[in-house]
C-alpha cells in the first residue's frame, strides 16, 4: 500500500504483480466507495498475470479528504488517472470500471484514448437517470416483500416520472437508506460475499465514510455526474467488454441496448449474480476478464459449470 501525491493531493494507491506485466487500473464505484472490496477479492488473482493498480479516488476513504474550499469536480478524477499513469511510468494500461467507475472509465477513455489499451465495464452506469429508475424499481420490490406497500408505491411512481436525474438519484438515496440492512437486497444475489474489514478500526472506517460523504456532496453540487454520457460510447476507440450480473439493477436494459450498438464492444452476462460480479462470482469473473484483457480482442473461452452466459457475435461452443 502506498500514498502517491497526485496533482497536489495524497491518493491511496495499491499495486500488485510484477511491473513487467500488463498494467490494469481499477476504478471503484459510488461515487465515493473504495477499491477495498475489489482488492480483497481479486488482487491475488490478478497479480499472477497483471500489474494491478487500484486506487481510492480523490477525497475518498483512505485518500486525503477534500476541504470545503478547494476546487474539485468530475474532471479531477479523470486527470488523476492520467497523472498517476505517468508517475508509474506506464505507457498504456487497461481500465476496469465498476458501477460509477464505469462512467469514469468511459470519460477517461474518451479524453485520453492513447493511454488505454482496452476497457472492462463491470455493471456500469452511463446515465444516472436510467440507473436511478431501475434501482427504484428494485427497491419497490424489496419494500413490497417487507410488506411496506406505501414505500413500494412511492418508488414505482418515481420510476415512471419525468423528474431530473438529480432528483431521481437523491430520491433513491433517501429510500435506499430507509431499507436499512435490507438495502443490500437491491444489489446482491449471492449473500456469501464476506469480507474482512479488520485492517482498520471502527473509528477509522467512520472517518473514511465522512470523506466519502463530502466527495459525493461535492460531485452533486457540481452536477456533471447527472449528465448522460451514453453518446460517448460510439466514439470509444479501444476494445471493450461489458460484464454484468443477470440480476444487476444498475446497468438496466437501456444501458445494454445502447452498448449493443458498439462495433468494438463485447458482452458477458453472468448468471445468478447481482451488481458485484468481482465479489459474488470471483473465480469466474477473473477468468472472463483476464481472457479478454490478455487476448486484446474477445474470443469465446470455455469457463465451465454454466455460471455465466455469453452474448457476443460469432460465439459457438
UniProtKB/TrEMBL annotation:
AB hydrolase-1 domain: residues covered: 22-279
EC number: 3.4.11.5
Name assigned to this protein: Proline iminopeptidase
Classification via Pfam families: Abhydrolase_1
GO biological process: proteolysis
Protease among keywords: yes
GO MF annotations, alphabetized: aminopeptidase activity
Protein family membership: Belongs to the peptidase S33 family.
Keywords for the protein's UniProt record, in alphabetical order: Aminopeptidase, Hydrolase, Protease
InterPro entries: AB_hydrolase_1 (IPR000073), AB_hydrolase_fold (IPR029058), AB_hydrolase_sf (IPR050266), Peptidase_S33 (IPR002410)
Enzyme class, spelled out: hydrolase
Amino acid at each position: 500500500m502506498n500514498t502517491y501525491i497526485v496533482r497536489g493531493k495524497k491518493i491511496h494507491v495499491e499495486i500488485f504483480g510484477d511491473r513487467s506485466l500488463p498494467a490494469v487500473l481499477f476504478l471503484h464505484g459510488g461515487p465515493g466507495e473504495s477499491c477495498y472490496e475489489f482488492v480483497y477479492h481479486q488482487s491475488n488473482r490478478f497479480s499472477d498475470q497483471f500489474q494491478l493498480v487500484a486506487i481510492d479516488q480523490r477525497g475518498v476513504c483512505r485518500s486525503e479528504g477534500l476541504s470545503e474550499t478547494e476546487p474539485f469536480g468530475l474532471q479531477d478524477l479523470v486527470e488523476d488517472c492520467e497523472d498517476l499513469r505517468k508517475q508509474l511510468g506506464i505507457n498504456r494500461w487497461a481500465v476496469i470500471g465498476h458501477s460509477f467507475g464505469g462512467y469514469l472509465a468511459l470519460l477517461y477513455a474518451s479524453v485520453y484514448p492513447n493511454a488505454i489499451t482496452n476497457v472492462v465495464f463491470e455493471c456500469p452506469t452511463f446515465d444516472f437517470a436510467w440507473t436511478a429508475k431501475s434501482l427504484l424499481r428494485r427497491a419497490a420490490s424489496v419494500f413490497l416483500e417487507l410488506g411496506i406497500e406505501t414505500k413500494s408505491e412511492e418508488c414505482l411512481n418515481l420510476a415512471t416520472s419525468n423528474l431530473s436525474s438529480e432528483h431521481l438519484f437523491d430520491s433513491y438515496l433517501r429510500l435506499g437508506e430507509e431499507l436499512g440492512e435490507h438495502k443490500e437486497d437491491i444489489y446482491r444475489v449471492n449473500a456469501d460475499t464476506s469480507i474482512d474489514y479488520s485492517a482498520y478500526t471502527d473509528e477509522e472506517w467512520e472517518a473514511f465514510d465522512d470523506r466519502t460523504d463530502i466527495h459525493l456532496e461535492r460531485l452533486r453540487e457540481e452536477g456533471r455526474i447527472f449528465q448522460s454520457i451514453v453518446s460517448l460510447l460510439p466514439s470509444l476507440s479501444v476494445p471493450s467488454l461489458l460484464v454484468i450480473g443477470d440480476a444487476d439493477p444498475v446497468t438496466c436494459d437501456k444501458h445494454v441496448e445502447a452498448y449493443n450498438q458498439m462495433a468494438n464492444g463485447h458482452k458477458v452476462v453472468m448468471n445468478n449474480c447481482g451488481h458485484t460480479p468481482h465479489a459474488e462470482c470471483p473465480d469466474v469473473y477473473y477468468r472472463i476478464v483476464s481472457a479478454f484483457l490478455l487476448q486484446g480482442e474477445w474470443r469465446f473461452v470455455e469457463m465451465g459449470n454454466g455460471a455465466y452466459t455469453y452474448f457476443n457475435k460469432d460465439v459457438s461452443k
